[in-house]
Amino acid sequence: MKNKPLHVAIFGAKGYPYVYGGYDTMVKELCERLVKKNIRVTVYCHRSLFKERPKQVNGIDLVYIPAIESKSFTQLTHSFFSMIHACFSSADVIFVVNSGNGPFGLISRIMRKPTAINVDGLEWLRPKWKGIGGKYFYWASKMATKCYDQIINDSDEMQRIYQELFNASSKVIAYGSNPGLQADPSLINKWQLAKQGYYLIVGRLIPDNNADLIIEGFIQSSSTRKLVVVGDVPYKDEFAERLKNIPDERLLFTGYVKDQQELAALYRNCYAYFHGHEYGGTNPAMLKALGYDCAILALDTPFNQEMLQNGKHGWYFQKGQKAISAVIEKAEQSPEAMQQLRKTSHEGLTKKYNWDHVTDQYIEVFKELAARK
């Protein structure tokens, strides 16, 4: 019994080895490392997303749970059923991602299963969760602080916010990255792009990421470069369609770029990367931009100030079309400063953002929780 490996159950993302968003990537990077450190891992997968359903992949146990399929309830019902299953499993610790799953900690508390939750960003402020959705996320985040044994935030700023809003202490474990990433420059030829001949946006076409403001500010600038927008939304959406129909020959919408080598080439060869994300903590797209040595132009938020070390690894712009046009004009007139940002941006990926270090921190949390049991 003494040699029995620690067993961690994980849910709240789409599953493994599914990689679509930040949480999915974290589950993949974390679980693969946990298994190598002799920790048994069970990941709960959205049954509808997997045509083939092997019980184990790369040493990770997989459980396929159904859900009530709808835009609002798929994730919540999947997490509800996953929590019940995990509570009756042999798992020593349950790890949950997404603050929307906050209320389900009541179940694990009743069942006396040690739990940790990564609560991510300010979900209740995101424009896509207007009205009831925003109120639910605020309530769910508050419930998470009362129901789970350990709250995990991915940035110092989010830790401060949770302390201030909910009087809740938390542990900061950042999202990880892989520095020194390489790319084949010829892959951008697919879009008839030239090295440093374009600005880049990467992210879903939703109001939260301010692609509309960046695009409008870019159109008003005198830049002769292109603005490449990577991303879309997986459903018909008026906001996304309006952006894609803006008439300007400098705009290029690639849609989703699923080939990671092509995406790497787009990052590494841009003149500058625009980051308009407003409500998150540590952002995966920003970490990729740092890893691919991009010159970064970021919306001025406390989260982006933290990630770019208060301007050491990027320039900031205020939320507004004129401010965006101004930062573009400045970048156009400052090729040497842009080159210096490219030369040093990877230095922003300190140990804090290293996946191996991130994994070691999670292991400490899991072992501490299991010891309480």
What does this entry look like structurally?
Helix 4 links the parallel strand 6 (115-118) and strand 7. An eight-stranded mixed β-sheet has the order 3-4-2-1-5-6-7-8, with helices on both faces. A six-stranded parallel β-sheet has the order 11-10-9-12-13-14, with helices on both faces. The chain has helices at residues 22-36, 74-87, 105-111, 132-147, 156-166, 211-220, 238-244, 260-268, 284-291, 302-307, 321-332, 335-344, 355-372, and strands at residues 7-11, 40-46, 56-57, 60-65, 93-97, 115-118, 150-153, 171-172, 198-202, 226-230, 251-255, 272-275, 296-299, 315-317. It has 373 residues and is an alpha/beta fold. The longest helix is centred in the last third of the chain and has 18 residues, at 355-372. Helix 6 (211-220) crosses helix 11. It has two domains: 7-176 and 354-372, 3-Layer(aba) Sandwich (Rossmann fold); 185-351, 3-Layer(aba) Sandwich (Rossmann fold), CATH 3.40.50.
Please summarize what this structure is.
With 373 residues, the chain is of the alpha/beta class.
The top level CATH class name of the largest domain: Alpha Beta
How many domains? The number is 2
Strand percentage, roughly? 15-25%
- Provide the structure class: alpha/beta
Q: Give a count of the beta strands, DSSP E runs of length 2 or more.
A: 14
CATH level-4 homologous superfamily of the largest domain: Glycogen Phosphorylase B
- Strands across the major sheet, in which order? 3-4-2-1-5-6-7-8
What is the helix tally? 13
Helical content (DSSP H or I, runs of 4+):
25-40%
Q: Please tell me what the overall shape is.
A: globular
Question: Ends: how far apart?
Answer: 15 Å
CATH topology of the largest domain: Rossmann fold
CATH architect. name of the largest domain = 3-Layer(aba) Sandwich
